User: Which sequence fits this backbone?
């Protein structure tokens, strides 16, 4: 049987040039001229773009710093404020854990105090008691003089007690169910110097809270707390703007938060 292909005598192959392919000998590379002025303009343009991104987006979204006011309009400033609140809560939790860890060591150090110091303190107390007992005056006889009979009996009529005034009614009341790690923010629109009474409760649970205000380029934090079950008092606006509370559930179970308010505010802004 004759083979169709004879591998001992392979055909000769020849490479043919492709249509439109330039010869390597004629290939050229065009250089882009670079001047000092062009490099300076490119550097300044890059720096300006970086500053715009920094002021409009990065600072509001990461730190809640909004130099232009556009970050709050786009919702980036609120994102940064929540991030800073989370960072502060995490630092507070770490500090509390460190304090709890160091408490047993302090108790052990106190238990190792010398017994002689305690005996000395007991002897000093006994000496003081003995001195007080020895200096007490002797009892004196008391002579009771007869009192003259009253000329006429007097009758005293007790005046009826005034009824307690009824408590003022609350103007607004809102409630929210917070899952673990979930937060909510409620604010009152107030003028400078206005006073609003409030009370809020976690209804058997505990929350972390931050009482703060913002508006007109001003920001203030009135008070912060961790693992607080409830609070009541008055909120006085230091400037015209939005003043209120941010709560976060740091427990392992859902809870219901209830807020009641009344006083000098034009609007309650709630989710």
Assistant:
């Amino acid at each position: 049987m004759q083979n169709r292909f004879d591998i001992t005598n392979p055909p000769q192959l020849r490479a043919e040039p492709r249509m439109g392919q330039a010869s390597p000998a004629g290939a050229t590379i065009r250089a882009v001229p670079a001047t000092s002025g062009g490099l300076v303009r490119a550097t300044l343009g890059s720096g300006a773009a970086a500053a715009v991104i920094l002021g409009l987006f990065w600072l509001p979204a990461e730190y809640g710093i909004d130099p232009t006011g556009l970050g709050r309009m786009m919702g980036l400033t609120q994102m940064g404020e929540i991030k800073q609140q989370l960072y502060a809560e995490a630092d507070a939790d770490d500090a509390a854990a460190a304090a709890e860890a160091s408490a047993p060591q302090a108790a052990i150090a106190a238990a190792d105090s010398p017994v002689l110091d305690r005996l000395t303190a007991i002897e000093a107390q006994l000496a003081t008691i003995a001195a007080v007992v020895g200096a007490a005056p002797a009892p004196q006889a008391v002579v009771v003089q007869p009192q003259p009979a009253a000329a006429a009996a007097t009758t005293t009529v007790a005046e009826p007690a005034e009824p307690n005034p009824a408590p003022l009614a609350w103007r607004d009341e809102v409630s929210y169910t917070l899952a673990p790690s979930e937060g909510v923010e409620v604010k009152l629109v107030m003028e400078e110097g206005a006073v609003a009474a409030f009370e809020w409760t976690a209804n058997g649970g505990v929350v972390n809270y931050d009482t703060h205000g913002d508006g007109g380029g001003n920001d203030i934090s009135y008070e912060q707390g961790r693992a607080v079950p409830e609070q009541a008092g008055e909120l006085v606006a230091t400037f015209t703007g939005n003043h209120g509370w941010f709560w976060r559930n740091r427990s392992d179970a859902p809870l219901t938060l209830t807020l009641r308010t009344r006083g000098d505010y034009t609007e309650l802004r709630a989710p």
About this structure: The CA atoms of residues 42 and 48 lie 10 Å apart. The helical segments are 36-63, 70-73, 76-111, 115-134. The chain has four helices and nine strands. The longest helix spans residues 76-111.
